[in-house]
From TrEMBL:
<dbReference type="GO" id="GO:0005789">
    <property type="term" value="C:endoplasmic reticulum membrane"/>
</dbReference>
<dbReference type="InterPro" id="IPR036400">
    <property type="entry name" value="Cyt_B5-like_heme/steroid_sf"/>
</dbReference>
<feature type="binding site">
    <location>
        <position position="347"/>
    </location>
    <ligand>
        <name>Zn(2+)</name>
    </ligand>
</feature>
<keyword id="KW-0862">Zinc</keyword>
<keyword id="KW-0812">Transmembrane</keyword>
<dbReference type="InterPro" id="IPR001199">
    <property type="entry name" value="Cyt_B5-like_heme/steroid-bd"/>
</dbReference>
<protein>
    <recommendedName>
        <fullName>Ceramide very long chain fatty acid hydroxylase</fullName>
        <ecNumber>1.-.-.-</ecNumber>
    </recommendedName>
</protein>
<comment type="similarity">
    <text>Belongs to the sterol desaturase family. SCS7 subfamily.</text>
</comment>
<keyword id="KW-0276">Fatty acid metabolism</keyword>
<keyword id="KW-0479">Metal-binding</keyword>
<keyword id="KW-0472">Membrane</keyword>
<dbReference type="InterPro" id="IPR018506">
    <property type="entry name" value="Cyt_B5_heme-BS"/>
</dbReference>
<comment type="pathway">
    <text>Sphingolipid metabolism.</text>
</comment>
<dbReference type="GO" id="GO:0006633">
    <property type="term" value="P:fatty acid biosynthetic process"/>
</dbReference>
<feature type="binding site" description="axial binding residue">
    <location>
        <position position="41"/>
    </location>
    <ligand>
        <name>heme</name>
    </ligand>
</feature>
<keyword id="KW-0256">Endoplasmic reticulum</keyword>
<dbReference type="InterPro" id="IPR013087">
    <property type="entry name" value="Znf_C2H2_type"/>
</dbReference>
C-alpha cells in the first residue's frame, strides 16, 4: 500500500510537535505537519497552535467559527507526513488475531476487519479523515458571508482547477476562454456572481487568467516593481519643483502612507494570488489619474504649484497602497504588517463583504465595514 511509505509516529512524538517551529495536528490516525501554513492561516497562527500535537477534526467542523470547505480539507491532505495509532487502535491491536495487519499504519483490508471486530470506534479513528463534515449548502444558507466563498485559507486559491469540470458544475465561466466577454454577456444575477467570483479557482502553473484574448491582454498584466519604477520619479520631481515655487501655508496636509487616500475599492473577479494582477496597470492608472489632476487644479485654482504638490501626494499614497497590497499577498513581513495580512486574508477568505482596507482599517471604520477578530471555535472553551 502507498500509505506504508509514510512512518507511524508514537503518540508522544506527535504531541511533542507543539510549537511554531514544528507544529503537527491529527485527524484520527493521520498526522499533518502544518508548520509552513501557520502564518498564512486567516485566523492567525495562535489558533492552530492551540491544537498543536492534537486532533483538529472537531475544531475544523465547528460551525461557530468556520466549518471548513472541502477544498480546505483537501489542502490539509498535502501536509500529510505519517500516521499515529490512537489509544483505541492500540487497545484493539492487543485484542487482534493479526496485529501486523494493523501496524504499522495504515491497516490493510484485513487489518480494518480486525479493528472492526475488536472495536468499531478504533476503525472509526482510521476512517476519520474520510468522514469529515465539510461546509455545504446548510452552512452557506445560515451565514452566507462566511460560507459562500467555499474557502478557508490562502492555500485554497493555490489548488489547480479542472477547467472543464468546474464549468460543468457551476455553469459560471469557462476558464479556457477570455473572462471579460463571458462576464459582460453572461447575464448573471448579482447574488450568483458574488457567490461564484469568490470561489477558489486557480490556473495551472500559476498562470494569469485570460481577460481579453487579444492585443489588450499584455496591458492588463503588471509586475509589482513597475509601479514604483514608473511613478516614483515623476512624483519626486513634481514635489521638488512645487516646493521651490509655493508658499508652504498654501498646501494642505498630504495623505499619509499608511492608508489609501481613496475609499476602499472592490476587487475585480480575479484570483487574489495572481502576481501580475495585484497592482494597477500603468495604462489604466494613467486614464484614471488624469481626472484627479484636473480636480486638484480646480480645487486649488489659486496656486498651480499647490495643486501639483497635492496631486503628487495623492499619487504617492496610491503607490504605498499598491505596494502594501502586493506584499501582503506574497511576502513575509514584520509583525505590524503580519496583522495587516491577517486582516486582509479575513476579507478574502472569511467575509468578502467587509474589510476592504488594505494599508489600514481607517476607511473601514469610516464606512462601517471594519472586520472584528476571527471567531474562536466553541471547542476551545472546553479545553
Amino acid at each position: 500500500m502507498p500509505g506504508r511509505t509514510l512512518p507511524t509516529f508514537p503518540q508522544a512524538d506527535v504531541a511533542a510537535h507543539n510549537t511554531a517551529k514544528s507544529c503537527y495536528v491529527t485527524i484520527g490516525t493521520k498526522v499533518y505537519d502544518v508548520t509552513d501554513f501557520l502564518e498564512d492561516h486567516p485566523g492567525g497562527a495562535d489558533l492552530i497552535l492551540q491544537f498543536a500535537g492534537k486532533d483538529v477534526k472537531e475544531a475544523m467542523e465547528d460551525p461557530i467559527s468556520h466549518a471548513h470547505s472541502e477544498a480546505a480539507w483537501e489542502m490539509l491532505d498535502d501536509y500529510l507526513v505519517g500516521f499515529m495509532a490512537t489509544e483505541k487502535v492500540m487497545q484493539a491491536v492487543k485484542e487482534s488475531d493479526d496485529p501486523f495487519a494493523v501496524l504499522p499504519m495504515e491497516p490493510s483490508k484485513k487489518g480494518m476487519a480486525e479493528l472492526e471486530k475488536a472495536d468499531h470506534d478504533a476503525a472509526e479513528d482510521v476512517r476519520a479523515r474520510k468522514q469529515v463534515h465539510a461546509a455545504g449548502e446548510e452552512a452557506e444558507n445560515s451565514n452566507k458571508a462566511l460560507y459562500s466563498t467555499g474557502m478557508s485559507s490562502e492555500a485554497d486559491l493555490n489548488k489547480e482547477t479542472d477547467y472543464t469540470s468546474d464549468y460543468k458544475r457551476h455553469k459560471f465561466l469557462d476558464l479556457n476562454k477570455p473572462l471579460l466577454p463571458q462576464v459582460w454577456f453572461g447575464g448573471f444575477s448579482k447574488e450568483f456572481y458574488l457567490e461564484q467570483v469568490h470561489r477558489p479557482r486557480h490556473y495551472k502553473g500559476g498562470e494569469s487568467a485570460p481577460l481579453f484574448g487579444n492585443f489588450l491582454e499584455p496591458l492588463s498584466k503588471t509586475p509589482w516593481w513597475i509601479v514604483p519604477t514608473l511613478w516614483l520619479p515623476p512624483v519626486i520631481f513634481g514635489t521638488i519643483i512645487s516646493a521651490q515655487h509655493l508658499n508652504p501655508m498654501s498646501v494642505p496636509a498630504q495623505p499619509r502612507g499608511d492608508h489609501s487616500p481613496l475609499p476602499p475599492s472592490w476587487h475585480p473577479p480575479l484570483p487574489p494570488m495572481d502576481r501580475l494582477r495585484l497592482v494597477m496597470p500603468p495604462t489604466l492608472f494613467a486614464i484614471l489619474a488624469t481626472p484627479f489632476w484636473y480636480l486638484a487644479h480646480t480645487v486649488f485654482f489659486y496656486d498651480f504649484w499647490a495643486a501639483t504638490c497635492v496631486y503628487c501626494g495623492g499619487i504617492f499614497g496610491y503607490i504605498c497602497y499598491d505596494m502594501t497590497h502586493y506584499f501582503l499577498h506574497h511576502k513575509n513581513l514584520p509583525s505590524y504588517y503580519r496583522e495587516l495580512k491577517k486582516y486582509h486574508l479575513q476579507h478574502h477568505f472569511m467575509d468578502y463583504e467587509n474589510g476592504f482596507g488594505v494599508t489600514s482599517r481607517f476607511w473601514d471604520r469610516i464606512f462601517g465595514t471594519e472586520l472584528g477578530p476571527p471567531p474562536v471555535p466553541k471547542v476551545l472553551k472546553a479545553q
